[in-house]
Fold each of these.
Amino acid sequence: MTNLTVYGFGLLENNLWLLALVLCSLSLSVISMSPLNVEDSKDRSTTDFILTRARRILLLIAVLVIALPFLIQGSICAGLASVTASCSDVSTYTSAKIKGAILPTLSAFILGKLLVFLYNRYVLTYVSHITRSLRFKIADERLSDIRDVAGKIVPKDFIPSKHYALDARKIFLGLSQANKPIYIKEDSLKEMHAEVIGPTGTGKGIVVGVILDQIIAMNKRPGKGNVVIAIMPKQDLYLPHIMKQQAEASGCRFMFFDMAPGKQGQWSPFSGGNQRERRSRVMSVLGMGETGNLDDFYKLGEKSLIDNLLRSDDFSVTKLRESLEVATKKTDGAKRSIDTLKEIELIDTFTCKKDRGLKLERILTQDTPTVLYVNSSLNDNVILKMTKAFLMEITQLAISLKAAGKRTTHLTLFCDELRFLVSDEFDKALATLAMYDTNVISAYQSPQDLEKVGDSNLNGPAIAHSIHKNNQLKIIYRVGEFKEAEWAAGQTGQQYKTVASRETTEVDKYGAETWGESRMMEQKQEWYYTENLFQSLPKRVGVFIQPGERAQVIYTAFVPTTQSTDFYAATPEAEKKPSPQPQKAPDSKPAQPKMEHTTEQKGKDRQEEAASGAPDWEFPD
């Protein structure tokens, strides 16, 4: 068939004809062979016009390619071409070529259909998603989604002291999301109360440590001193070291007072302040507050009796109990109060005489600022009750001494686990303390904690609302329940977002879904920081809220300490076995008191030892 190659079968012999046929089959399979006409209408697109013309051209080419072998064969057999081969030979050759082209052409057509299916079924959805994301949109805001928030915020490690700006009269709190320091004006902090909210382990004590560290450090400057008192109902292994370290560096007096028996310090709960202030504490400790029921009537006689005893100069717990026993020797009118006082006497911390032990009035009025750390106990109801009385005395003296012009220092009072310390007296004091050069920092675990105060005589929701209102500065860490997260989000304010409320999709015959070309926009309200964020915050990350400013995420970090004092260890005397009272030798130091409290007598022994001349209100650091 060499002559055939030379005389007209070149296209067939070198497979260009087959290649053209396969390409036409594949192309027509992909773009479809219909429609061949598109009627003129407004809906006709340029793509439709191009595809129609392409189909016509491809069909024409396909017809010509398929007809080419037959045209060549016909011309040869008709004698129009001069060749030496017979017509039968030419027919046999062309038939073989056409049969060999059937399978590749059919395969190309099937392949085209398969490509069309895969594109429409899978690729088109991704293309639609990409083109949708590349739209130039009027608005592209979204409502909060926990999937976009959870795990996205990571704590930051830094040294807080590197960002202190005390010379600029600013208090450093932490870093922003942009790694810029977040400050509050010193005067603003001192003029407003603050609350730090979050479960145990989220970082409340960390930011409080940063704040108190700077307030104590203010005493390095000349001028008004700053007294700091921290009341901790549970042991803290971090904060007392910070306070002691900075107190020593700033020339302040550091005192550690542990209310637990056998530990450091004593305090006479009914001796400080004027008569009315002492009376308030006595009535609170003995449960003489008005409840609005019949019990108030039966308390009148007991109250009158206590009021007569208040005129005494010696108003220790023991003296009050003894006086009540004498006054009611023939009756049991004060049995409940006497039993309560006996229970208090079992703890030697509260059995010192009037002129001995911790002197809050001296702490608040002396020239050298004092830093006082008070350790209480959540597991001892008596100690917890006396902690409330201690807090009451602080607030009473802070107001009365400032009003009388006897106090020139500023007082910062920190109360941890406020839920267990809150009282009606504290709530009332919180509303006025800022006017008397005192700011309070409160910490508790949940926004609803204050509604669950242990005193059934208190209106929990009203107390909680009042305290939240008076605490204008807030740092809120992660919360657990949605109700708590909703409250926290509500403190950050609302914002409006323009979001797509409705967006259409289309499903083609291949089962693929694509985005439609229209969407409906709507403005919706959302909290500035949402519930999702508050439920996703990691440790040491919170939200800082202050009046007149936009809320912002705040990153907090530990204040490094080098202290190794074991504040909570029992004093050496408490570790000794009980022994008889040693006799005081001439010109010798007074014997140290036994710190155990298993009997009432041991509390009296400690009173007598304290009265022997030991320096009052000075305890081991």
Note: Residues 477 and 542 are 4 Å apart (CA to CA).
Amino acid sequence: MSIENKVPKWRAKASVLLTVVACLMALFHEYTTATLPLSGFMQMAVHLGFAMTIVGLAQIAGDKSNHFTVWDMVGVIIIVFGLVTNLRILATKGFISPKLTANLSTMDTILAVLIIVGILLAVQRAIGTSMSVVAIVFLAYAFVGPYLPGLLKHNGITLNRLLSSTYLTVQGVFGTALSTSAKEIFPLMIYGGIMVSFGGGDLMMALAEKAFGTFRGGIAKVSVLSSALFGMVSGAGPANAATTGTFTIPMMKKSGYSAPFAGAVEATASVGGQIMPPIMGASAFIMAENLNLSYTTLILCALPAALMYYTACFLAVDVEAQRLHLEGMSKDDIPALGPIMKENWYLLISIGTLIVLLCVFNFGPGTAGFWATSVLLVSEIVANLLRRRKFPVRDFLSAVTDGAKSASNIAVACAAAGIILCVVDRSGLAVKMTSLMVTISGGNTALMLIMSAIASLIMGMALPTVACYVIVASLCAPPLISAGVPAIAAHFFAFYFGLISNITPPVALTAFVAAGIAEANPIKTACHATRLGIAGFIVPFMFVYDPSILLQGTLMENVYGIFRCTVVVLSIAVMIGGYWKNHKMPILSRTLILVSAVLIFLPFSLLDIPSYLIIAGVFAYQTLVVAKKQLKLAGTSMKE
């Protein structure tokens, strides 16, 4: 038998092994979530060991070559390095003494090098080269820092200190980010994957179609709502776009939207899934840890801004539909909701369980995810027994494998972020960044916010959202907090701009995924998505100056803050689109709306009421103009 015939079988065995390891990883996490996590570093070590093994196996199983390639060897190295280095942590039984850290043995020195190399390789395969490059730049900074000028200069970090801090302290690989990945993120990733595989995605799409399908520009609104619903249980922008976009984007193109705009709608809506409770992006779990808040409190604070984001997206889509004179979907094109609900209604039980446990009983995300998954599995088993159908074992195993792969990608990104944060901590870069931002801005909060936003957008081009948030929050949040910005607003600011970088050119991952489905120019798609997602750029600045948008004030302050922000966001969305009541708005009207919205946006409350009156007056005037035109056309038609 030739080698060409043997290798595919070997890759098939690697694929089977990948499924086995993924299931073992899921069982481990579900068990420790239901009982108690392992002590100290042990939970994180097992988590990272599994994650690196899965990344390595995914590389080997997914390679299409008939030969053993260089990248296959990289996959083997990732597996070996991940297992060896994390077994060393397990050997300590989760307790690493200061003596062990201070006097690094030769063996631990080698293992520290191996775990750094293994993580960098795993991130390169799982996330992309850009994040590995960023981590290498920070590692280089640890050694070249003493030779740099000005505030970037530091006293130097010895190799021994860097390796011990990275490998054997909570300021390195085994820090807050990886801990959150191990304890909170993984159970929810598994839940989301299983929910979709059991028909949850179809159910959410059906609900969205029933709600908005017949409205003007209906399929685009279905895309927005279905992405929001899907994002509630997935919390991942690119995955969201790839899942719902395969259906909505072709339908949007068929209804009359251009390919770049169709891709942009899906990308903008999909990115918003990471700010939509109850399951937000992985960054939200880390943010809750950083702020020492319960996850329930965090998602309640996030809800008003998330709703504003999607409302603005809906309005932008509606304005575009007016410009193109598009109608809604035909009722014949909308599947009957009854049969789909009859088939999949029981899936809603687990979603209800998740929301109740998070918001009513204040369970942690990991524990709530475990019980939601348990309810989902029991519901599916009972439903299949009553209908005399077999349990979809193949779909279940595929969902667990995909969920474990996605969670492993996040885990290695968190580990790489830990390496970067170790350099930031040991070099004093965070303190220097605070001094640098204060010096450049002259203590001006607005300038500091602009600098932080730019840093987040740039970092977001090279890093996944979770790593971007972790790094930007460590560098930019402290100076903002020192300038008087509430901690929750500073962290949400970094979170939002790290998120919105997914649709901001020149590198916009979620927009590029949607552009691929739409067969559109990626940059044009990203530009449209930036316009549609304008709320993501406005809202963060507003909640910094008015934290009541994040529910940080009294009841009346919160209500007025949300109202004020909503008026600004929606007014600017209409101004950019330029249409009202199916008629184009004149430049003067759009200018008045823009100026008034900017005045409300600025923190000068005396100008709010006159600005509200101007905006209301402009819309009233436009409505009267349109009504007169329609009466005139009706009169002309009657004469004819």
Note: The first strand starts at residue 579 and ends at 580.
Amino acid sequence: MASMKDALLSAFAAAGQVLPQSLPDRKASDHKSITSGSAAKKGSIAQSVDEVRSGTASKNEKRHVVARAPNGDARLVPVEYGQTRPYVPGHRSKGLESKANNRPGKGVATVVMRDRDPAEDKALVPRKAQVAPMSQQAEPETLRPEAAQPEISVAPDARCLVTYYPDVPRAAADHGEAMGVQTQLAASTATDVHDVTIGLDFGTSTVKVVVTDASLERSFAVPLCMVDGFDAYLLPSRVFECVLEPGKALDGVGYSLSHGDRAHRDLKLGLLAHPGSPEHRERVVAFFALVLRNVRAWLFKQYAGVYRQAHIAWRVAIGLPSVSALDNAMAPVLQHLVCAAWHVAGLPGTITSGGVQGALRESLTAEALDLEVVVLPEIAAQIYGFVVSQRFDRKAANRFVMVDVGAGTVDSALFRVLPPKRGVWSFEFFTAVVQPFGVANLHARRVSWWERVLGGNTKAEGLLEQLSATKFDTDMEMAPPATYLDYFKGVAVRNAPKPPDEDFFQHQVMGQVSGQTMWRAWKESLLSKEDLTGIPIFVCGGGSRMPFYARINDEIGRTPGCPWLRAEPWLLDFPQDLVCENPDPAHFDRLSVAYGLSRLNIGSVTQVSPMLELDTPRQSWGDRYVGKDAC
């Protein structure tokens, strides 16, 4: 019989490994780690490993294999011939002991290892659902050689095709600053009162506003920009800081929607990331105040005859991308900022830094301002236009999936709409997920990929500098190119390893929609497979128009191992009571959140509990018959 040393050398030679020239003989019973560093983690060895048998012996003798763990460590593991069974998942193993495929095999080696700890088992999650947030992801360890770098060729006339801003930037409309300072047009003797709600959809890239007058039973989309078409309702979420002329303000700093010395972007994401920051709060309040002043001015100019005869009971509804908006820690923050903005908008003259800071220091309340401020889940507001349409069947199950693709995030939820009671709507959420997988973050991922690929290429220095300057822009007025290959003209890529688009779409976007939103509802016993098969799905938001995100509807039924996980794409209808100067049914979903915020009277928003599993005792067949002795 060959010595252990010869067997070890033979095994490593077969595995393509190189051993030191001097290696002391070891006894066959001394199975220690043969590599430096930490030992392989117990229970994980023999997963994705190379097995090599060493030596020759009879069937009843122990043998040894060289097994490599995922971390790269190699160990000698004892094996013996005898009975073996293929691995069967625990939830399917019961009753399979007598199956033919579980019969003992002849001359099959079995790795002797300790019983696996159930705590180490991963949940049986579809591949797309096993996704960590972008900030937590790391490149997996691999035993394969590194992929070759792509072949890049840069033409002399190559240029960058990415631009977020047109030649003429979208300018904010000015509906009359002086008129917008007012909150009422009617004289104090007027007795009529109209309930008016401003639906403020504060998005990462744009803000949209719809005003609803409950007394008129009409909603009005407010044009906030001086452009033609539907873009007039999409005001970029940015505010300009400008230096004022001496004497106009004590601190000399003012704010504007259209011009200034410095543009503040990323207002929403900056606030959500740093809700206690005085700088972020000041910029958001200034932005809100300018928007609210413009909205009131437009309403008073367009419908002066109505509001000179009636007082207005004002209400501002703002959305949060969370199922727990009613309990969310950001809800009171937004309420305070809206109250401060309402007060600042009513101050005459230019909105200044000092005026905003003074309002933030005061303990302003909605009651003191004769105002009502509510914070609502954006998903609930977005579905409102559908539930009040003729297509909504109150007797149906009314379970829906909503996916809102924005500039910064993808907000997805699976929920049920309960029948309204006295005009009040309630929602039951099964799952709700918000992830940073929106258009701006897709663009940032693509730019990072190009920076790695083109880094060090002297021919692409200028191109890369121009592209990198757009990496973190969020107030985009133009969509990024359809694919990462369309970012340059005159730059060719061949043999690209791990292209950014497919990786981002499958592991991030579909991992959220099909895995964390839909599949998880079944995994946590919230819904059955039958409930999820063919469930209606609405894919909305500005980003949904990109071919990249439009694939969600096509891919939703292709989750590996889950043929029952399918959804039926539906579209939101354009409401008949929405007055819009440039109506475009294909773009209503971009106004759907603001419309719902302006009209929705919400009752309760609850989280559904898992379904109870009834423990029904098994009954023997003999219990159903009467024996002959009882006759």
Note: The two ends are 75 Å apart (CA to CA).
Amino acid sequence: MRRSVIVAAVMCLLGSVVISTNPAPALGASKPLRCKTETLQGKKFRFCRGLVKSKDKTVVLDTDVTLPARGDGPFPVIVMLHGLGGSKTSYEVRFESDPQHDPAKDTIEGVGGRYRYNNVWFASRGYAVINYTARGWHEDECLDDTVMSSDARPDYADSPACMIQLNHKEYEIKDTHHLIGRLVDQTLLSADVSVNRKRIGATGVSYGGGHTWMLTRDSRWTSPKGRSIKLRVAAPLIGWTDMLDALAPNGTTHANLIPPTDVAERAAQRPGVIKQSYINRFWTGLNIYSATQGDLPDYLNAWRDRALDGEPYNDETYTHLVDSMLRNRSAFYMEKEAIVPTVSVQGWTDHIFPAVQSLGMVNRLWAENPEHPLKVLLNDFGHPIAQNPADVMTYGSNLINDWLDFYLRGKGQKPSSGVESFETVCNEAGEQEMSNYVAGSFDALQSGTQSFDMSLLTGTLDSSVNDPHASALDPFPLAPVSGCRDTDTAVAQGNLAATVALPEGLDMLGLPTVSFEADPEFADMYVAFRLWDVSGDVQVLVDRGVVRLGSDEAQTVITRLQGNNYEFQPGHSLKLELTANDSPSFRSSNAQGTIDISDVMFEVPVANDAARAQG
């Protein structure tokens, strides 16, 4: 039985997810989108709106296309893909005819997250721009709820394909292919225009970023009329490439290595630790903003319940969840069809889709072809607990424009490949300079590591710890938090911590490594890590991580934190804290008990000063 939620009771919990949406006119699904002339800041554009039947004929997709005012093409194409809970309007600005038009915000250039990243901005530069609401959200309409998703099973059979499929490669990805294909075939619009099928670009944020990464692997397709199409360039922002690792990391990831690319090998790894706070937040958004508010495919309900029921994860539902997340929703495990130049923006401080989601993928792509044009921008950007400083966001928008313009319009110089990283600077730091580092590879951003003997961390962790800092580090606290997360320096009884003075400071860039001996009382326990910058009686969270222990036997553990680019000021101290219970950020283990810890070593990757950008 499908579930319902009381929308009003939880609406306030999703402030960052709420997106207003304007319903499309009630068109017959097979009709072309109606186009009319619109005006913004004295310039005219053609704006086309309507509902488009999906290729599988189970759903109509709420779709807009924005065109330059003049010309019949062929125009290069950009498809813009929204985040979870968003819609086609997420990266649109309102024209002057819209009653909700705001002259301060609705400009061609855009403001905030739409700065040089919106439908009208790109149309003003000569693009045909597709913005559509992904399958199952907001104003999309189910045409046939008797066709079940390929993820339906006897235990969760009521799973219509017309509903949200969480970016499944056979549904949402094919929807994007179909819309672009109809635009290529000149059957999508009432306007008599053509587009260049060899100049197709995709970009998306969060949910749309994961979608964009998947398009880079499923990058060749044919239009309904049989015309061949290839994705020319992609720009994913703060998305995932391994959905399982993003939602439930197990601590085996390393930015400088390529994880297993075989689905069976990856699925056989120890289970990860559920990011409980994020999953609950996302679940609320799925229920509220689905087209059938409160109704989701039964398999998604079953997967969520199984994940939050906790260990041991050894049943058919969990096995199906893991296999489908890897095989059907993760770009990293999809085979390459062609080389797609890609610029990716990923957040060091994004605690759901961190830097390694891009770095692991880029390492695989460069292993497949060292000449693959790729750029990764790492910064303090994304989902909580990122601060999203305006200058960093502006830099990212301009970088994306450079890549799209070169590969789709032939404008500007060829963008350079490599990795670039901006330092995370807390808002409270005032005028502290924000450094950025540029190199041809991630390794070249670093100049070795600095090791710390953390033998003082010898002791026992207790998963029943009452830790007041745990709630302060929740990505979604009850009271909004601005700036970096800081607390007092107390250590809860049941946690372990050690502090090292840094008289000369330390420029960290990358994923710190922790090695230690662990002897857990039970199987399925985990150890979580917090790296703090301590000054006086205040500590600022710099980094965190988690590792699932392999058994209830004594074991040697080597793992890595999420990573950051952060400068510890001279005279500050570095503090490493360990806990066996980091709820609500991570789900508490069902195995409640103690873990004996010893022989802790900590290595911090150091920024390469030679890679520091000048000016």
Note: The two ends are 60 Å apart (CA to CA).
